[in-house]
Design a protein that fits this description.
CATH superfamily: Cytochrome P450
Family: Belongs to the cytochrome P450 family.
Radius of gyration: 21 Å
Protein name: ORF 10
Number of domains: 1
Order of helices and strands: HEEHEHHHEHHHHHHHHHEEEEHHEE
Keywords: Heme, Iron, Metal-binding, Monooxygenase, Oxidoreductase
GO molecular function: heme binding; iron ion binding; monooxygenase activity; oxidoreductase activity, acting on paired donors, with incorporation or reduction of molecular oxygen
Region (Disordered): 1-31
Number of strands: 10
Mean pLDDT: 88
Helix content: 40-55%
Distance between the termini: 40 Å
CATH architecture: Orthogonal Bundle
């Protein structure tokens, strides 16, 4: 266990309630508020873009507690008068904001498609897809945008194949899902556009599900349509579940690939290490997940359904709590030298993919895709390097899973 000298120097607790989501100076790194709050105010009050207040939780033990204790409800955020980060549709049936027993029933229906064994059986196909995208990137020539050539099309192709979305339709929904996953102040400013995007995606999926019902195939949407008929899955649950899988199924992995490759190339010795010893890639993936900033935790908002003490602070029934996984993954009480990217880290109980009953359903698939991408890149492009200065990287504001507009690379 690291000593107190490992903890970063922080500013004293501010006199004003900070605004959330926090805005980092460098989106590849955590905002300064994470270290400050973790050290001096680990359960801290913040104000949300809606004007509501919430508690943010930054220490590892407290984040695990909040995400595993049933007294914190995700479903309650949709109830009238509940604090919320963005305006939400009442009665939402999304798996990510369900509580048991509904969450248990819904997750059971689709979890069979994401078992570690079934996903591992996809490895050869994912490797073939990755090689094809890298071939196209190399043919394009340097500099090439990592996101446009690999980090985006690979996860999109994989999740669309799993769901049964026709290849010609894939470009149609990318803008819709980007808008759906906008959070914070940008979401309030784009409320009409987000609502329209949700409507278009719902309409598209409704038509596609009708087609799957008429002519089932071996894909997730066909499985869900059968569950609609056989397992009591309502039409609203069916549509919202499909939207959740489609949106979250590639946004998270696209961001993870982008952040991971950036961090490896930012210090060339890191990439060289994996090139020289690819057997270290699985451990490196876990460390890159811990270290990366692919999600700010905003989607993890919960409502206390009774008074609960968290880290010595009393959270009252009806108050909102946001566990910050990225902050927990830099907790010096759990991780030695947490601000260091240590590709050889062996003791790595990170919670980048969540914790508790809402642990990421697609975690095995995300790990597989990251491993295959890094294996393919170090083999095919051993001299890979960044082709852009940090100061020239631009970001789309408000994305729940932050990624640059582009990440040019050369080899």
């Amino acid at each position: 266990m690291p000593s107190s000298k490992d903890a970063p120097t922080v500013d004293p607790r501010p006199d004003v309630t900070p605004a959330f989501p926090f805005r980092p100076d460098d989106p590849f790194q955590p905002p300064c508020e994470h270290a400050r709050l973790r050290a001096s105010d680990p359960v801290a009050k913040v104000v949300l873009p809606t004007g509501d207040h919430a508690w943010v939780v930054t220490r590892y033990a407290d984040v695990r507690f909040v995400t595993s204790d049933r007294r914190f409800s995700k479903e309650a955020v949709t109830r009238p008068g509940a604090p919320r980060l963005i305006p939400m549709q009442r009665g939402s049936k999304s798996l990510v904001i369900m509580d048991p027993p509904e969450h248990t029933r819904m997750r059971k229906i689709v979890s069979r498609a994401f078992t570690a064994r079934r996903v591992e059986g996809m490895r050869a196909h994912v490797r073939d897809l990755t090689s094809g995208f890298v071939d196209e990137m190399v043919e394009h020539g340097p500099p090439a945008d990592l996101i446009a050539h690999l980090a985006l099309p690979l996860p999109v192709t994989v999740i669309c194949e799993m769901l049964g979305v026709p290849p010609e339709d894939r470009p149609r929904f990318q803008d819709w899902t980007d808008r759906m996953l906008t959070i914070g102040a940008p979401a309030l400013a784009q409320a009409d556009e987000i609502k329209a995007a949700v409507g278009r995606l719902r309409g598209y999926l409704a038509e596609l599900i009708d087609a799957k019902t008429a002519a089932p195939a071996d894909d997730l949407l066909s499985l869900l349509s059968r569950a609609h008929a056989d397992d009591g899955l309502s039409e609203e649950e069916l549509l919202t579940f499909g939207m959740t899988l489609l949106a979250a199924g590639y946004h998270t992995t696209t961001a993870a690939i982008t952040h991971s490759v950036y961090h490896l190339l930012r210090e060339p010795s890191r990439y060289a290490r994996l090139r020289e010893d690819p057997s270290g890639i699985p451990a490196a993936v876990e460390e890159l997940l811990r270290y990366g900033q692919i999600g700010g935790g905003a989607g993890a908002i919960r409502i206390a359904v009774e008074d609960v003490e968290v880290g010595g602070t009393l959270v009252r029934a009806g108050e909102a709590v946001i566990p910050l996984f990225n902050a927990a993954n830099r907790d010096p009480e759990v991780f030695a030298d947490p601000e260091e990217l240590d590709l050889g880290r062996t003791d790595n109980p990170h919670i980048a993919l969540g914790h508790g009953i809402h642990y990421c359903l697609g975690a095995p698939l995300a790990r597989l895709e990251l491993q295959v991408v890094l294996e393919t890149l170090v083999e095919r492009t051993p001299a890979l390097r960044l082709a852009i200065d940090d100061a020239d990287i631009t970001w789309r504001p408000g994305l729940a899973f932050a990624r640059p507009d582009a990440l040019p690379i050369a080899w």
